[in-house]
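Both lines are given unchanged directly below:

***
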Amino acid sequence: MADVDPELLEHIAGAYVLGTLSARERERCVQLIHAHPDLGQRVHAWENRLLPLISGVPPVTPSPHVWQAIEARIDPEIPATPHKPARVSLGFWHGAVSLIFGTVLGAAVVVWGKHSETLPESYVGFLSADIDTPPVMHTSALRNESTLFVKMMGPLEVESGYMLVLWAIQKNVAPRRIGIIQSSGSSRIALQGPSDTIFKNIERFAVSAEPDNAATTSAPSADYLLKGPCVKLW
């Protein structure tokens, strides 16, 4: 594949890892990966780039009907029988989580106006109430731009007279107020500079509920409702 455009190879590798290829395209890509080391190296690079996101997602126990559906797809002749969660390996869930993030990040590429599967350099966060609950909020900001996109994956209840405020947390430094977000749907926050300047040393994002009359508060006044890691993707 020495004569193939490197940018095209990067697109193919990114699409493979993000899970946006069709079944036939994916099968062909697997053949190419085994035959051409350059493509395989690019696939590994994409996997390593997205791997940190796995640590921010709690494990999810599959229901019996999920296993029945999987077995039916693999071999319709096998009777569908429930499986116990203990039989699920860690490797399986790492792959499943990668696929989930691939879907979300693939959607983010479209939102950001990109017309390929190449993930742009960006800061990404997934926030949840605690480590035992799935993420309910997704944040993303292109590295060299000054806008943070926020997407609520489900509504977050807020008492009347309160608003949701997003904070950036850095070790041994007071939380930095980023802006007000909506309790459902999508929000955009104009940053006071490129995200690479704002989030360069940030470890986590967090959300708190603040009184409406504290529109410029510089520190959270209550416990965080949501928390999650801030991950650099490049």
